[in-house]
Each structure stands twice: as C-alpha cells, then as structure tokens.
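User: Let's play a game. I give you a shape written as tokens, and you guess the letters that built it. Ready? Here's round one.
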C-alpha cells in the first residue's frame, strides 16, 4: 500500500510540472531499501519559450520536445508553452525502441513530446523527419545532445 501511495504522489507532482527525485537508503547487509521521501523541483520553462513556439508555428515549423524527463512532466511543460495540443501524442524511449521505422514514420507528425529518451533516440527522431524530406533544426545543452546536433 505504501508503494502505491508513493507512486501516486510521484504522479501528482509530475502532473504539476515538477521534476521528482525519490530517496532511500539501505543498511549494510539488509536486502530492502527504506523509503525516505520525495523531493520535487520546479524547472519552469523560460519566459521566451512561449513566444518562440508561437513564432515557429507562424512560420509553419513544428516544435517538439525531446527530453529525458518523465513523460507527464514533459507533457505538462509542452502544454504550458503551446507545443502539445489536443490530439497530439507523446512517446517514451522504451516504446520508440519497439517501433519499426515505418511505424514511427506513420505517427511522427502527431508526436509532440518524446520523453525518457537516450541520445540514440534523438538521432532516430531527427532521421525520421529527414526521411519525410523535412529540414530539421535542434537545440540542446547537454553532452548527450551532441550526436543528434551533429
């Protein structure tokens, strides 16, 4: 029951657009972790994001989010800045791994948020858009963005 309560609280915090960290400890020679608690962090979108997304849309550019964050958190942020709209889809890295290129190509235009992704997922997403004959631009600030940025 405690695990269900913790997972629900995690979900509630993610729905509020917060990043959530869980903490536990394990005493030497014990088999189970003892849950200590959750910490949530506010990582609000930059103020200029909303205007940037609006300008992209005016120029017929489809902005998307590709992140390692939790899918709920990423989707909430995407909604706040106008990226995720009604009937859009999100896709997590594990599910992306299960899709063939053909299956990905079919749903690609409807996906606005990719969450829990690895660097190789970012490359695959960029290549999928390029297969559709689209010009792709990407920004990123982490070392794991370098392969897709290249």
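Assistant: Ready! My guess for every position:
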């Amino acid at each position: 029951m405690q695990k269900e309560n913790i997972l629900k609280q995690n979900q509630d915090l993610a729905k509020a657009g917060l990043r959530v960290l869980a903490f536990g400890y394990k005493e030497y020679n014990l088999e189970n972790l003892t849950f200590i608690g959750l910490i949530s962090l506010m990582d609000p979108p930059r103020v200029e994001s909303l205007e940037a997304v609006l300008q992209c849309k005016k120029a017929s550019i489809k902005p998307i989010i590709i992140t390692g964050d939790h899918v709920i958190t990423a989707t909430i942020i995407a909604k706040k800045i106008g990226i995720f709209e009604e009937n859009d889809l999100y896709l997590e890295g594990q599910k992306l791994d299960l899709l063939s290129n053909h299956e990905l190509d079919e749903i690609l235009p409807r996906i606005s948020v990719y969450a829990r992704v690895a660097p190789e997922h970012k490359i695959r997403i960029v290549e999928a858009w390029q297969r559709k004959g689209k010009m792709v631009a990407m920004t990123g600030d982490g070392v794991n963005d370098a392969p897709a940025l290249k």
